[in-house]
Each structure stands twice: as structure tokens, then as C-alpha cells.
Amino acid sequence: MNGEAEHGTPRAVGIVWGLLVLNTLGSAGAKTIVPLPRSLIQLVTMGSLVAAFALALALNPRLRIRPSAYVLLLTLLLVTSVIASVNLESGFGALFRCFRLALFVSTLWLLSRWWDGGLTFVRHHIRMYFAVLGSVAAGLAVSPGAALPDLYGGRLVGALWPLTPPQIGQYAAVITGLAVLLLLGRRTDRASAAVVIVPSLVLLALTHTRTATLGLLLGLVLAIGSLFLTSAAARRFFAWAVLCAAVAAVGFASALQAWFLRGQSQENFSSLTGRAKVWDALLAAPRTTAQEWFGVGLGDKSFGGLPIDNSWLAVYNEQGLIGVGLVAAILVVLGGVALLRPPSLRRACAIFLISYCAIASYTEAGLGDASPYLLHLAVAVSLLAAPAPAHATALTTPDAPRRRVPRWARRPEVP
């Protein structure tokens, strides 16, 4: 997407952000066209995180950071995770995950130097996830059967890199929402926005991901609502969106219902595709006082061999009530700061990202560990940050050396 020049931010920061995105893609998912050993995928993802930290450190060797309540709360969450993991109730893998989270949080601290309320990280976010979606589209074109397997009920998966339908739906929904807001704020043109929005919506529809769809719609409603009184473009878009939604609800009600149900029975749908049974079993499991407050340590976000698929219960299981409190504080603090900011495009983008993560937390895990959701929230933090002081620009753009001017040349001669 085209956009304004971002002053004071090295281009290599975008590379760091791309490496963080690669790290959070994960190593589990559908079968790919060319079988990739999980150990190789883990080597690539973990190597990308190490490279991201090393490059961020090279860009910020003097360790200049900006105060950030968000990263501070993540640091406290890391401490809680280490306390819970040292008992090795979840095995040595818990300590490895703590090390990964430590590198992730440290990289965010190093990048905080460039969080100045601009759109730099929004553009990096859109570019990186659009590239990921490009690989999904390429896999669909090369092998439709592998990209729409029966194992996932014909839902779109990553055929070149192992990505699940919820992952693809999340990436598509987030960059679609951000692209719509940039278009409304006239920070990109229609052609560039369409290049991102149209294929992303197609991929989102093919994933049949309800959480991502609801997160996109509700997030945009809240974000555009924050611009309603100050932006005529936002009011026009909202009016057209309501009209199109009403027409779709009347003319395509049966098709929309079939897409939403995904062929599930009413019982399976009401239990959230079996998630409720896992949640009930997790809450009913006996726990010691230490496990109640600190959890059992970082794991694979599963209970009894089944995915938890709820950020709050996953955090409760792995980081205890203290972890739940810290995650809640993150969302409350970011939401409160966003509400206190004056209406603007940056505030609207931040509200979209925060609300999307809050909505998705009900049926997706990830708020308590290194994940795309923490990257979404980091972008929101970069948008809500106050502009850097004038003297701070000297840190990235040093003044040119002054030329010595002879005394006779400083004043014009008087005839």
C-alpha cells in the first residue's frame, strides 16, 4: 500500500517486524503440498525470533526505549510464567517457551523507541500479513485439493506453510479492517486498498471462520463509530454498510446461515464445536493454591490433549489468576487510553485492533504468550503513543556538521 514517508524509522524495523510475524505463524497446521518436518518449521520460526532480537539490538545498541505500560505488563506476565514453569509440571518445554516469550518481549522493548503515534507499524503489519496470505493464495492455486482438505471440512488451509483456517481468517480480517480505515482516512488510494481488501475477504470467506468475521464486523463498527462525528467519509461508509447488510440479510439469509453453521448440528454449534466441554473439564479440575494463582507453566494451550481455544482459560491454566489479571489489565489500559485520545484515524485503528483481540479471545488462545494477538496489540500501542519529543529526533537523524563561516563573511559590508 502506498503512503506517507515515515521519518526517523529505519527501514530495517520492517524486517524485524516481519521476522516477528514469521515467528508467530506457529509450526502446527494442515498438511502441506511439500511435507515439511515440524522440527524444520520450528527451527525457522525460532531462528526468526533470534534474528529479530539481534537486528533490533543492532538498530538500538544504546538500549533507548520508551515507557510502555503494555510491554511492562507483558514483562510481569513473563515473570509469572517463569515462576509457574520452574516446577516443570509442564515439562522442560515450559522453560523453552518462557525463553521464547522473553526474546519476544525484549524485542518489543527495543522497538518501542520508534512507537511515536504514526502509521509506520500499521503499514508493516498489513504488508507482512498480506505476504502470508499471498502464500495461502498461491497454495490454493497450485493445489486446490490440498488447500481445501476434507479433514477441515473443506475450509481453506495453508498448503505451502501449515496454517489453520482460524489463523488465515484472523490475518485476513485484521488487514482488511486496517485497510478500510486507511482508505476512510485518505491515507491510501482506492486501488491500493482494493488490492488488499478484495482478496483478503475472499480468503476469509473460504476459511468459514466465524470468530474472525465477527471480530472484523464488530471491530469496524466500533472503530468507525469513533470517527462518526468528525469524518463525513466514515458516516457515508457506515450508511452504505448498513444498507448492504440489510439487503444481504434479506436476499441471502439462507446462504449466510449455511455459511455460518458450516454444516454443524445445533448441539455441536451450541457447544462451540466442542469447546464448552473442554472448558468445563478445565474449570472442574482440582488445583493447588500455587496452581490457582500462578498456573502450571507455559504449555501448548491444550487441556487433556484437546485445544482450549479461549485466551482467558488458557492463561488461567498456564499463568493462573495473576496471569488473567495482567491480561485483563492490558486490555483495560489500552482501551482506556484509546477512549481518552481525541478522534483520529490512529485512534480508530487502535480501537479496531484492541476490540478485535478482545472479541477473538473468547474462542481463540494467544493473549498470554508470543502470538499474533500480542503483535496486534503492539501496533495499537504504537498508534496510541505520544509523538517523540523534538530533541529525540536527533537520536535517529543527527544534525549535519556546521560549516565554519569566516568573520568577514558574517556581515555584509556597509558602503
Describe what you observe in this structure:
This protein has 415 residues and is mainly α. The chain is 63% helix and 1% strand. It has helices at 12-23, 38-59, 69-85, 93-111, 120-142, 144-147, 165-184, 190-207, 210-225, 232-251, 253-261, 266-270, 275-284, 289-294, 311-340, 345-360, 372-384, and strands spanning 302-303, 306-307. The chain has a two-stranded antiparallel sheet. A hairpin with a 2-residue loop joins strand 1 and strand 2. Helix 3 (69-85) runs antiparallel to helix 4. The chain starts with 11 loop residues before the first helix and ends in a 31-residue tail after the last helix. The model is unreliable at 390-401 (pLDDT under 50).
At a glance:
By secondary structure, the chain is an all-alpha fold.
